[in-house]
Amino acid sequence: MRCKRKDLIAWYVVFLITLRFLFIQNGFAEGPFSSIDSFDIQKVNWYNLDPVKDSVQGASIDRTYREILSELKPAKKVIIAVIDGGIDINHIDLKDKIWVNTDEIPANGIDDDKNGYIDDIYGWNFLGNASGENIRFENYEYVRIVRKYDSIFSHVSSINELPQSEWENYRNYIASRKKYEAELKKHESEKNYIEFFEKAYYKASATLTSYLGTDTLLPSDLARITSTADSITLAKNFMTYVFDNNITLKELNDFKQYNSDYLDKKLNKNINFRAVISDDPADIMDTGYGNNDVKGPSPEHGTFVAGIIAANRNNNEGIDGVAEHVEIMVLRAVPDGDEYDKDIALAIRYAVDNGANIINMSFGKSFSPQKKFVDEAMKHAVNNNVLLIHSAGNDAYNIDKNMQYPTRRYIDGSEASNYITVGATSNLLNEQFVAGFSNFGQKNVDLFAPGVDIVSLYPGNKYNSASGTSFSGPVVSGIAAMIWSYFPQLNASEIKDIILQSVNRPEKLRVFYPAEKGNQTRKIRFTRLSRTGGIVNAYNAMVLAKKIVSQKQLN
Fold first, then answer.
1. Could you say which of 199, 268, 437, 459 is the most buried, measured as most Cβ atoms within 10 Å of its Cβ?
2. Residue 513: CB atoms within 10 Å
3. What is the pTM of this model?
4. What is the DSSP letter of 334?
5. What is the pLDDT of residues 441-465, one digit of tens each?
């Protein structure tokens, strides 16, 4: 161990920030476990609690059922299309809440309902082929752009060398290449950090177990070390830091795999994962692909999202989802990496054409080369009274300045009217109320919802805890479905307006400004981080919905 102690400690800090912020804060943090009893009780179902009655900054779901809906009868089941990475439709806490295409006869190899999809019983998988092969990983969009245009633009020194028809492609290429090179450098550095830490960990462990004459090293063993030899002291300091910060070998290996997936798959421009499908991603009419495997090889994220929306509230199992009278239509279009615009557009169209009322979109990316496909699909949704709900993203960006896709704004400058964008909050009404990773924006984020330390479903009848705006969006989707199931006479625009007009607005609350690197120092009024300046509240929304419906009936 040749590094000086101060150099090691400085590196430990870098490693810890990288490990905790990049991996833990934006992914699954605990588990999975077979029971919710394994979690801190304060985490389980907190998003259902009420700021006033429970002194927890949830979305007031339980209070709404208890004080308002107990006296009302639902009028219809609302269908929510979840466009994601796949869902475990057989999860014990979800299996009775899955949409079924009753016009299709299972497993007969025939498109019975003539909708263009064979045996689409629970939805459709746009990340596979007819032989049952499925895509799990994908490049990021900027990697695909670099791969596509490298041979064309890599030697161009000025945009003026190109015809004007190529200017937009060239600008996208330059921006993509800049991001690609920065991300590649960052993750290669992380790989070096991991390798350094791993070697130091094993050497320190070996040094101390040899000194103590033991096979394993426990935190309590460190107190028995009295040697002042440099090698023993350095090893002891190292392991003290490791134990004090609860860095485990499992966590290290998980982060190692996370880093490897970035370098070998998502950032690897030499792999074309789309070859499995053999379509033309730039041709929206080339639709002869996909299969009915709605679970796919990586249903963790989608299952978690679906659980927040619809986990059974009355089965004495696991967690309580937001909406009772709801069915989940499963649309697999989001790989581990960036989604293709074409797949998202086709998934939106499928949802609309097959009866979905709400579309939950817990995904996003920074480049959208076929945005016109998504725009047209969203217009189709708006024209058919479908509500679109999108998670804001986990980059700590002001998305008024750093565009994230999809977006409510069309290429022509107009906006989708039935569209809500959601940021993430914690259960603490203090300076840490807004998640440090959450995107924000007074123009492009509508409101915030619970999204930190959420416990939800995990494949295989298990449960997990995670943080992300991906899990704030489903809270709002569930509330929208709750309102619509009791008041079906409302339209999508009215549901949106009710949700936005009924937010809680902590007027004086100042919060840490979301920070990409996790270094939160500046503060800002919470009300300045979104259009409404508020957090979703089901109770307020249902009160307002009742009032509006009553006024309609009087008129």
1. 437
2. 17
3. 0.92
4. -
5. 999 999 999 999 999 999 999 999 9
